[in-house]
Amino acid sequence: MEIDRVQKEIAPRFAFEGRPVECIPFGSGHINDTYRLTCQSQDGEMHYMLQRMNHGVFQEPAALMENVSGVIAWLRKKIIACGGDEKRETLNLVYTRDGEAFIQDSEGEYWRAFLLIEQARTYDTVEDPEIFYQSAVAFGRFQRMLADYPAATLHETIPDFHNTVDRLHKFETALKADACGRAAEVAAETQFVLERRDLAHTLCDRLSGGSLPLRVTHNDTKLNNVMIDDQTGRAICVIDLDTVMPGLSAYDFGDSIRFGANTAAEDERDLSLVSCSLELFEQYVKGYLEGCAGALTPEELDALPLGALVMTYECGMRFLTDYLEGDHYFKIHREGHNLDRARSQFALLADMEKKLLQMQEIVGKYR
After folding, report:
1. Fewer CB within 10 A of the end CB, N or C, for the chain?
2. Residues 6+ apart with CB under 8 A from 163
């Protein structure tokens, strides 16, 4: 049985405090398999998160864990220096009994462990604008604390993850191949993508030209990757560091807006419901710039609204590319699911384009 194997074979290889007494499935993540491990010691119970990394998605676990452990160590020093609680304000790795950040088990699977952050939770949807604001503060603070981290030393665990020019090339390749005979039915969506070729180049060209600095970026800045304290309602910790890589601050900001300021679900079929809420956009700008506390350059601040457009464009392209290739990357739950997702993203982008000036004015208000 899987849980028995985890408790008997995997857990003893990590330097947990106490004796493992319970192991149960934990969380709702779609990539890694996660368990909550309870250990009993003389001082009481300790809870840990034991995780099997998805080797299919992350094919270089050593490089990934080098990124994760390096960023965590950096954050811990910053938090301690500011008098914060390093056990709650960042993830804390539990190392193996051999001092390693992860193990490989007898079946070739890779495992790691973290101290569980107690009395805090994550949210999957923006139930309250205050929660969205708190997530923005957390991601802004994450950016500020890592502003002087040598970003170029990080591994690209997923090469070209936010290289929008490369995403456009992949889309055009899939369109030409038309492996599933679906190209004819997405003519309108194809035209929408191709009419915006210049948008794909905007941030990439600024990075290569040196006007935007390379940063440590999280690259999965969804609301549910921030822990919110149960008692205070404040954001305390950014989690899920698997996609931490070199990138642009506009990527992280833009993806948060794409996900959190959308008035509809990511796969909404009724496109009349899809729009970018300027109220939520302003909440996020306010929180993000508060968290950044001056860490961004004027050029980066100028690029933030554009980041929302580029990330929405890129995500829509990825959904459409996957649809053309037969839905092999994103999980689908109905026929045409990826096409619905692409159409929803493109509707959101079209609305953002109409509101770009207002978005720029909001950033100007808080910079």
Report:
1. N
2. 204
Both tokens of 290, joined, read 């508060």
Q: Which two tokens stand for residue 322?
A: 């996957």
pLDDT tens for 24-52 read 888 655 567 888 999 988 888 999 999 99
d(CA 269, CA 272) in angstroms, rounded, equals 9
Residue pair 218/288 in contact by the 8 Å Cβ criterion: no
Threshold 0.85, pTM exceeds: yes
Q: What's the chain look like in SS3?
A: CHHHHHHHHHHHHECCCCEEEEEEECCCCCCCEEEEEEEEECCEEEEEEEEEECCCCCCCHHHHHHHHHHHHHHHHHHHHHCCCCCCCCCCCECCECCCCCCEECCCCCEEEEEECCCCEECCCCCCCHHHHHHHHHHHHHHHHHCCCCCHHHCCCCCCCCCCHHHHHHHHHHHHHHCCCCCHHHHHHHHHHHHCCHHHHHHHHHHHHHCCCCCEEECCCCCHHHEEEECCCCCEEEECCCCCCEEECHHHHHHHHHHHHCECCCCCCCCHHHCCECHHHHHHHHHHHHHHHCCCCCHHHHHHHHHHHHHHHHHHHHHHHHHHHHCCCCCCCCCCCHHHHHHHHHHHHHHHHHHHHHHHHHHHHHHC
The answer for 187, left when phi > 0, alpha when psi is -120 to 50, beta otherwise, is alpha
